[in-house]
Amino acid sequence: MKFFSMFWERQTDEMKEKIRGLVKNGQLEFINAGWSMHDEACTHYEDMINNMMIGHEFLEREFDGYKPKVGWHIDPFGHSNANPRLFAEMGIDAWFFARIDYEDKEKRLKDKTMQWIWKPFSESLGDQVSLFTHTMHNHYCYPRGFAYDVRYDDDNPVVSDESLETFNARFKSLDLYEYILEMTLHYEGNHFLIPWGCDFSFSNAYLAYHSPDNLIKYFNSHFSDMTLMYSTPSEYLDALKSQDITFSVRYDDMFPYADRADDYWTGYFTSRALAKKMVREA
Q1: What is the C-alpha to C-alpha distance for residues 18 and 50, in angstroms, rounded to an integer?
Q2: Which domain holds residue 195?
Q3: What would the pLDDT profile of 62-93 be if each residue is shown by its tens digit?
Q4: I want to staple 98 with a disulfide (CB 3.0 to 4.6 A). Which of 140, 185, 259, 280 is the partner?
Q5: Which residues pair with 151 in a beta bridge?
Q6: How many domains does the chain have?
């Protein structure tokens, strides 16, 4: 919300009303909405609360009482029990993240348990607090070969005009088709979330949207058993709810975190004693 607020403060009243209209229509959705996406391992719970409070107060003030319902912690290094508990008590119904211990992920991919109901502090809270949890299939970036932005200029744009020598929409569509088929092996149901973006993406609107527009149009006109669409996390959650799926339950936290063999981040969590001391004193 810090970065959005910097954009917001530079807009005219007319532009602000247009943006409010997009929010009311559901075309623009605010998720998580903390002032930043806070860490869960080093951060004190009081700082987690304050971080979320500042961002949510901004939205409530500028967007007629808007309250985010979806958490988005795609990049913190490991996940604590405290965070889903706080999120649930803030009115957040579900959250999404990417980073998960590599051995845990391997097992969950195999068992089709990449999504679950998290019940933190169940020994004291029972079923009072629960949160739907979604783990990303392939980190939080575009599928490989589909990154279209200034920072990611190695992937060829989608060309759907068959009269051109550079026509590649068929091959691109087949690649994505195979990617989605692979996702069906790891997720329940028949709706699948594919994140579209990555670090520092969407700096050029034409590059960011022209290729996906071409891809969606071509894909949907050539495959009858799958449909691509732009969506939001809330729309995706509604699609999941419409299906009769029973999700597994998790009670424990997600520490320690390792992203590959012999590469644990535990030291990152325990070696910031001075930084933590300065924060507490401040």
Answers
A1: 29
A2: 139-243
A3: 999 999 999 999 999 999 999 999 999 999 99
A4: 140
A5: none
A6: 2
Q: Is 46 helix (H, G, I), strand (E, B) or coil?
A: helix
Full 3-state SS string of 170-186 = HHHHHHHHHHHHHHCCC
What element of type H or E holds 19?
helix 13-25
116 and 18 together in one domain: yes
CA-only gyration radius of the chain, Å: 20
Angle between the N-to-C axes of helices 45-62 and 82-89, in degrees from 0 to 180, rounded to the nearest 10? 30
4-11, long-range: CB within 8 Å, 24+ apart, which pairs?
5/58, 8/62
Q: Are residues 35 and 58 in the same domain?
A: yes
Residues 110 and 235 in one domain: no
In this structure, the dihedral spanned by the alpha carbons of residues 60, 62, 64 and 69, taken in order and rounded to 10 degrees, is -40
The CATH number that applies at residue 197 is 3.20.110.10
Q: How far is CA 125 from CA 85, 119, 150, 251, in A?
A: 10, 9, 47, 11
Do 143 and 100 fall within a single domain? no
pTM of the predicted model as reported, rounded to 2 decimal places: 0.92
**CA distance linking residue 150 with residue 156, whole number of Å:** 12
Q: 151-162 pLDDT, tens per residue?
A: 876 788 999 999
Nearest residue to 272 (alpha-carbon basis) of 44, 36, 38: 44
* 267 and 132 part of one domain: yes
